[in-house]
Amino acid sequence: MYYAGLQAKIKEANPLAKFVPCSAHSLNLVGTNAVDCCTQAVLFFNLLQNVYTFFTASTHRWKVLNASVKGLSETRWSARDDACQSLNKNWSLIINALNLINNDDTEKTLTRNEASGILNKLNNLETAFLSIFWGQILHRFNLTSKKLQAVNIDFRVVCELYKSLITYIIDLRSDKNYEYFKQCAIEKSKIKQFQSCTKRLKIRKQFFDEGPSKETTVEYSDFKVKTYFVILDQLRSQLEKRNEKYENLLKNYNFFFKLTEMTSIKVRKNAEILQNEYKDDLSTLFANECVHFRSHLLSIGDEAPKTIQDMCGVLRKNDLIGMYPYIDVSLRMLLCTPASNCSTERSFSCLKRVKTYLRSCISAERLSDLAIMNIEFDVTAKIEFDDIINEFATLQSRRKI
């Protein structure tokens, strides 16, 4: 898909251009793929939406519920977390409301059948298990996604967050954690057996010199193998695949984060690798410049900058760009590579609040100015407009007749 599309055209114009997937959107795609990886997961999220649709379709049902339920969204992945949290929080209230509606003779037959169907799906161990399991998974993914949407995030933080989720998923993939979720689900639903749990009779072959054969009953469940492990394996696979992309983008810049910990020889070798990749932008003096910058950071001691942004700040604050011009160029190259484009997309979303039907004839220049004021609301809110209004009124004032 990358051989004739936009990426190919950009690569043709500039071979050094790199494709950077949005880290927050990539994390959402990880969750989407995990949800679609097995039947039980698909059925669970369909049930979440059915519960929301059922109670929000009638004010009477909502009044009977006397609690809040959330629905899913195709564009906001955080809505799935909200839906799971609301289901877990109001589990008993939802079941009680469904029982009341199901046993109410004044309700329509169709409504009672819908309530009965949802109630049957809720009253099984699989649903209780998945509500607890997905509730914890989605909560961690949602908070991580919000962190990935920060404006000042860099690739090092992105890799750290993805690795933390990978380790978290690996820790969950164990029999002890499975039993923990199962026990919580049993306490929540008061049901002790999965519907997919069956019994199998094992008959041992009887020899001629033995007595009557004994049949042994073995209870097994394929829920752990076909649902629990499948979801976790899919999450881990997708996380590792996407994290590898970010690590490849960062690998040539990694030595900047360890300048004070590496020897001058290692710093020089890593700097030469980066310089060979961007020969037109970085001089052959770049490696020697990095060795000097390492010594400069060591002389600062504990106050030495730890992040790329802090390093750029030190160069500008102390007027050191003239001493380390190519380090400044390389640091800005990394900083200008976006790790997330969520803030940019929000800029386009705010246009519907700027260009209303009352401003249908607005010019492009004024629309752009209003959009900037809306996007940079944090700065705009701090501006004192009284002097500006008075000056404008003075300039535009007309003589009184």
From TrEMBL:
Coiled coil: none
Superkingdom, natural source: Eukaryota
InterPro entries from the UniProt entry: HATC_C_dom, RNaseH-like_sf
HAT C-terminal dimerisation domain ranges (all copies): 324-377
GO molecular function, a single term: protein dimerization activity
Official protein name in the record: HAT C-terminal dimerisation domain-containing protein
Organism: Macrosiphum euphorbiae
Source taxonomy: Eukaryota, Metazoa, Ecdysozoa, Arthropoda, Hexapoda
